[in-house]
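Handover notes (outgoing to incoming on-call)

Open items:
1. Aliphatic sulfonate ABC transporter substrate-binding protein: sequence verified, structure written out, both below. Nothing else pending on this one.
2. Nothing else urgent.
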Amino acid sequence: MHTDRTAPPRSPRLRRALSAALVLPLLLGALAACGYGSKAPKDDAAPAAATGGRKLSAGTVRIGHFANVTHATPLVGLAEGLFAKELGGTRISTQVFNAGPSEIEALNAGSVDIGWIGPSPAVNGYARAGGKNLRIVSGSASGGVSLVVDPERIKGPHDLRGKRIATPQLGNTQDVALLNHLAEEGYEVDPATGRGDVTVLRVDNKETPTLFERGDIDGAWVPEPTASKLVASGGKVLLDEKELWEDGEFVITNVVVSRKFLTEHPDVVEAVLRGSVRTNAWIAENPEKAKGHVNASLKRLTGKALPAGVLDRAFAAVETTDDPLAATLRQQADHAVRAGLLEKADLTGIYDLRLLNKVLRAEGRPEADSAGLGAE
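Aliphatic sulfonate ABC transporter substrate-binding protein structure tokens:
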């Protein structure tokens, strides 16, 4: 980390981020209609071939996820072949996304059937489509999000005024969490442009560490492993988001499915959920091997593996779970409303946990609760 960042030049990356912020108000109408971001390319190198056996009702299932440690379940399950084992002759096709709004767009467009995604984009996508496009069918992960800052510029929460803080994408889960936290601390920020007492810049996770090292941003509210990368570059954790939640638990990753795909191919959805539940159990029993799978997948998907220290810290910060932690999703939806990124919406029916609970019962596990938001 540079020791003198009092007046850093703005890099081309930062200028692009600022330019995007300037045009965001013009894009909001379009975003409301079709979702955020752009569709990701297929991850053709992923271990997508099924292991053989009886084909289910769909020949192929298209799965979306991120190249994040908070998405350890799909990264490990795909690499270890646990999803393929449950799907038999049904093939797996995968797409990788930087943030949830882009994945919701792909789900709405019909290019993704099932996706691992954060709660805020799921809620936003559900509300904008009047509940016609998706259902949350399982939880996947809790925690793994931090506000990491340059300790030379930001000593505490009262030093954020005038600073530049990055999030992965407008309207994604970390973006909503930051805007809500800033409001609770008394800072005023326009949610669309990111301008205000604190400047919120929407930056691709891949670029955030470079901007931080150059001094072009003063901190970032980001998921793992980006948070641990910033710490390795000299950043300080100003706030671990776990501190804001009762019992330190909050949903960071859900499993969502296209409502059409769920209706037409419940056997395939059930197989994917069985793979997810068994993957989470495998991760708990084989943490070192799981870390190896995560790092190998990140290297393949991003071009670079994580250093051991970064991987260990990031992996320890995330808890895989089948529980959707539905009560915390309700709170996150309220945060999005207060932040001005979502109008108040009736979320009753956003969950359909029937297939998950069928799988959990078969595994001798207690059923998951929808906190009154289920379609059952």
